[in-house]
Automatic annotation (TrEMBL):
It is found in: Membrane. The keyword Transmembrane helix applies. It holds the Pfam family GtrA_DPMS_TM. This is GtrA family protein. The keyword NADP does not apply. It is a multi-pass membrane protein. InterPro entries: GtrA_CellWall_Glycosyl, GtrA_DPMS_TM. Keywords: Membrane, Transmembrane, Transmembrane helix. Residues 27-157 form the GtrA/DPMS transmembrane domain. The chain crosses the membrane at residues 25-44, 56-73, 93-111, 131-150. Belongs to the GtrA family. It comes from the Bacteria. It comes from Rhodococcus globerulus.
Length: 177
């Protein structure tokens, strides 16, 4: 039994049924949280050091590294019961859709930085960092998350495998798993 299945087995009804129906989304969100930490750690390390004056470049580098981690985690865990494509085709689609997601995620940062001009010296460093966090990590990541989840299920991992355990499992079946 996976960690997520164990947690879901302990959720009281009727919330358990909802969690079972959306276990793929829950796993996708956990992968997203993990890659969020990777992305933000790299972004702020670069932005506060060697790429101080180039926040977009820092975000792109951080996003690309996070996408590589995302592919591995999503392929092996979130969407492990899906397929329908040759591995090379699947990977190419994943990275293409993720590249679109990276662009989507830095559009709010671009607007914040260059349309609203929330950059030092026009604003304080604290204001700039708060604006960067909200625009890149809250707005940008939410937009890209919705786009990527929908796209991955529709295009990258379109078919559920026949051997998938049904989401109609009873409490006893979950406890035995």
């Amino acid at each position: 039994m996976s960690f997520v299945d164990g947690v879901i087995a302990r959720i009281p009804q009727p919330f358990r049924d909802i969690a079972l129906r959306h276990s793929e989304l829950i796993k996708f969100a956990i992968v997203g949280g993990t890659t969020f930490l990777i992305d933000s750690g790299i972004f702020y390390t670069l932005k506060l050091s060697i790429l101080e004056s180039k926040p977009i470049t820092a975000k792109i580098i951080a996003g690309v590294i996070a996408v590589i981690a995302s592919y591995i985690l999503n392929r092996e865990w979130s969407f492990k019961n899906r397929g329908g494509r040759e591995p090379a085709h699947e990977a190419a689609l994943f990275f293409f859709i993720s590249a679109i997601g990276v662009v989507i995620s830095f559009i709010p940062l671009y607007i914040s930085s260059y349309v609203f001009n929330l950059r030092v010296p026009e604003v304080s460093l604290t204001t700039e960092n708060i604006a960067d966090f909200i625009s890149a990590y809250i707005i940008g990541n939410l937009l890209q998350m919705v786009f990527r989840f929908w796209s991955f299920r529709k295009f990258v991992f379109p078919e559920e495998n026949a051997e998938i355990v049904s989401d109609d499992r009873t409490e006893e079946e979950l406890d035995q798993a």
